[in-house]
Amino acid sequence: MKKQVVSAQWIIPVLILFLAFALRFYHLDAKGLWGDEIAQARWAAFPLEKIWERFRDPPDFLLHFVLGHFALQGGAAALWIRLPSLATSLLAVPATYIATRRLARREIASAAMLLMALSPFQIWYAQDARMYASLVCFAALSLYFFLRLLDKPQWRGVLGLTLANAAAIYTHLFGVFPALIEFFALCGIAGAAGWRARKNENSLFRWHRIPRSYVLIVTSLALAGSLALPLAPGTLPYVAGQTAGANGTTDAAQAFQLSPQFLQLLLSDNGLAPDMGWRMGLSLALALLGFVLLARKNRRGAWILGVWLILPPLFLQLTHPLHDVANRYLIFLQPVYLILIAHGLYAIARGISGLLRRAAWWRAQKASARYFVGASAFAALLILFSAAPLRALYARAKLNDWQTLAHFFETHTTPGDVLMVEKGFWGMNTLAFYLKNANAFSSPPATLKELQKAFAQNRTMWYMSFGGYYNPQAQQWVEQNLRRVEHTQWMRPDLDYAPRDEFHFTQSEPLLEIYMRQGELPSEINYDNELGDRARATPHLPLAFAKKLEAKLAVRNPPPHILEIEYASKQPAQFEIDVNGIAFARVQDAAASPNGTTARWVLPPDAGAEIVVRLENVSRQTLLFIKAVRVRGE
Length: 634
Prior knowledge:
Blueprint: H1 2-9, H2 11-25, H3 35-44, H4 48-54, H5 63-71, H6 78-101, H7 106-118, H8 120-126, H9 132-151, H10 155-169, H11 176-201, H12 212-227, H13 232-239, H14 260-270, H15 278-297, H16 299-319, H17 334-356, H18 360-363, H19 367-395, H20 402-412, E1 418-421, H21 425-434, H22 448-456, E2 461-465, H23 472-481, E3 483-485, H24 487-490, E4 513-517, E5 524-526, E6 541-543, E7 548-554, E8 561-569, E9 573-579, E10 582-589, E11 597-602, E12 610-617, E13 624-633
Parallel strand pairs: 1-2
Antiparallel strand pairs: 2-4, 3-4, 5-13, 6-13, 7-12, 8-11, 8-13, 9-10, 9-12
């Protein structure tokens, strides 16, 4: 009989877990990857040794990239790169349940678990390839093991807490917060215990009476810090504002401020739904009510959850970091916030139950029947409460749809066209993820000078803008000199690109605008600045082994026509060339110069007025840099 009761207690959590999986898996790969997801996929595809070398600098550490690396072994589709986020988000749901059970009864734990399962904020990042779902998961597990060690000082708890905190730290810079919170919470608990001991015994708190749980928790935090030491060399300069971080971007130098707008976004996203109106107010009211209820029954638990919610934003306000702080970095606060909301909902449910007991028909029902009816009504109300935000979430596109954009360019452009993105290398590398051959296009940086230079060459230009605030001067010039391509020509009609609902969802990128100018086919293409991780180190197009360049050129001068390719590499350079799909030449240059070499060939008389040149680097050892491809007369 006891075993049956125990197993029955897990029916509701298991059903909630299935619901969480269904909500997270639904439409998981319905939309293409957005910009940061594409960066995640590109970096996760690196060899493990390169991931270790590169992502020991903040803010994004290497653990989620490693998970993505193994997930990509199953395929390159959006589903695979998002799979680690799905798995860790799903694990965070039962982690919230077991953490809540350390503080409250089963009904409250089930309510908190259901809130996590239904949370649009959690589902959004469960379907996002970035590491935020993993951060939530490891933080929730850290909270559970911390509470468990306080009650049961066992070495298994030490191992769990150490691994959870280390995993959180190796996921994101803000993963250090759970360990920092637990240290401050423990100091408060120890201080209160010492005060009581001194008051009761009229003597100082005796160090030999320190509870074993305190020692084990401090030991675990020290071990987690030791495991994180390989991250210190890159983290300390970043925290001091001296470096830009592993992603190579320079964050704004303005100091962080806990503004009312930031706090409003934080409360909205972490509450019952990402709503800036009454849902946010109701969430806050329920959380405050739940905190009061918890404080009356479990002061230690209320202290821990209070520190968990207050310390991170307070710490950021006091330290004023000189790097961008997005509210999604604090997504690990949500399980604790929902635990308090669950306490508040339970208090209201108890009040309603007390009123119902006055009715004779309700008292006549069996206790199990009353519990089932109450739990079903509670779950149904929460699901109805979340229905509108969830519908909006699934309809909301992760702007921009780079997959659709890449397909548009593949079908509307000619090799040698100029592709320029307002955000420069980031945008071109993002687009290149879906373009079959991004090296078919010339793409100088989107400065006003480079725009005018490409315009003067009378070549076909395509300019992608994110709203003009990255380079307002260039944006103004583009609007005056280029024609905007209507959204209906390239956007997927089945995706809702514009926010048409009352709910706040995280913007992936601003709505993209495409501008173009129809020019002439060039006789010469100079690759002044191009794609790839090495683009900042060289002004030329880098071609790794098996990578191909494609250029379509006009043949205007009288014959004979000379094809020239200007390149640079470390010795030896090896590449193959075909013209109009026919093998044309093979270069094996053992004396290639890193400063530049020009190779010349006479084109056949029947090459035509337009030629397509394809060049492939066939050297496994040498990175080839292409400076220019041109056709000229004698």
